[in-house]
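Example record for the data management plan.
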Amino acid sequence: MTALSRSSPGSVPRGGATGAILAPGTWLGKHQLLHRLAVGGMAEIYLARATGIEQFEKLLVLKRMLPQHAADHRFIRMFLDEARLAATLSHPNIAHVYDIGGGDGHYYFTMEYVHGEDLAAVLRASRAAGRAVPLAHALTIATGVAAGLHAAHDKRGPGGALLGVVHRDVSPSNIVVGYDGCVKLVDFGIAKIAAQHGRTRTGGFLGKARYSSPEHVQGQPLDRRSDVFALGVVLFELTCGAPPFDGDTDFAVMQAIVHGDAPRPRDRVADYPEALEQIVLRALHRDRDARFATAQELQLALEDFARHHQLALSSVGLSAYLGELFGDKLAAWHDAQRAGHSLTEHVITAMTGGTVDLAALSAAPPPPAAPPGPAAVHRSASRLRRSIGLAVVGVAAALGIAHVVGPAPRAELSGAAAIAPPRESNRIVPEPARSPTASAASVPAVSGSPASVGEQRATEIARSDAAAGPTAAAIADSSPSVDERRPIAPPPPDEHRATLPPTPPARPRGTDGKRSTASPRGHREAAAARPARTRPWDPDSPLEP
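Corresponding structural encoding:
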């Protein structure tokens, strides 16, 4: 049983060797490392798992930057660029990125685990079996990679402009074929974005020489057509059994790519279809302007060729072919399923030969979260001081307003009227008294009404102002003038409303007992001759203007 690593997240076992292997059971954030799969010049790949409540578990791949590059800002920038770019790409033919983490000089991200083999292993198994990859399966793989490449090439930024993504490392080791027949493009570690000026040093070459385009080898600016050339090399190797450019050294291969033309596939395979040869040679043309403009154009050309030659591009057929090449592995997986083992248990057992005890690893809880560093503490203290300052300013502003306005007046009212002080705009301002010369003689006195209702209302308003205190009076004095306010609304009816004069008598009848037949003009003259009815001013009457 392998001893568990109880180190903190992101820690590296002591030993002094660069790129030391992290022991199984080491935690990086919320991910537990299980087995190292591969190591490269910039990063290392681990098989890991994410756990959760109710025995939740997900197998994934964790890519961690090598610790010797933690001080190199260029490597850190490239590594984080890969994680951010891959996380924005969502396509069935591109491996998904789940999470990114880092701290104390350790950076990593996690991505989808595909239960299958990379294309390099598929080609080796085919050569070992003495058979070529069937043409239908080769085209299925090539069209899947072309679809994923086009999705990456056509990725746009927030403003809608193309990002200009170039993978720059399309090769069999970065193409994964699942046992279920899926095709995934992985590893955007050296992908180039057009907006990243100056990220690659002049003369620096990143990628695999055998699968590089002439402009890539010469250090020229790259676009999507460089990936089209690389996919043409992969397609040539899939259909002919060997890459088109070969040499004893990488320099010899580069010389052949830059100065020579790609060999004709029919020189390698006698019965190679001529239409497919034209497609492959166009993808491998040294002049980028003569190639397919996009990976999607190459995909459509391959699909059209397959349709005319009645070739079925099927993930089911590809899955069956992998079952023929890797039958022993699939049989072992099916036996593990029948025995009730999970995919994680089966994969770890097959990779390590049973040297890693998953039960012991599962019993080890993740380490507690590391305490915040000085920078985090300083930021928290700054936020607290800023919050306290804002709160003090708010309280001071509230107190200042209360000091100016003063306490609310107490009134023997209910509801909203008990809260708000009386407003000047609600008062009834008496109009100037009209001349009562003809009023007393023409209109009878109002039964039961006071001598002057307006005077009574003015007295009530004055009494209310006196009870409200000096603050209410000050507010009332600051109100706009009568001329600036809206028109005064009539008051509600009460018991002091004026009584209308009695109905005038009917028209006089004629001598024969019938109504008068005088003309309308006569009626108007009679009405004008009658004395005008007048009455004293009543502020509570709805008849007043």
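Summary line stored alongside the record: The mean pLDDT is 75.
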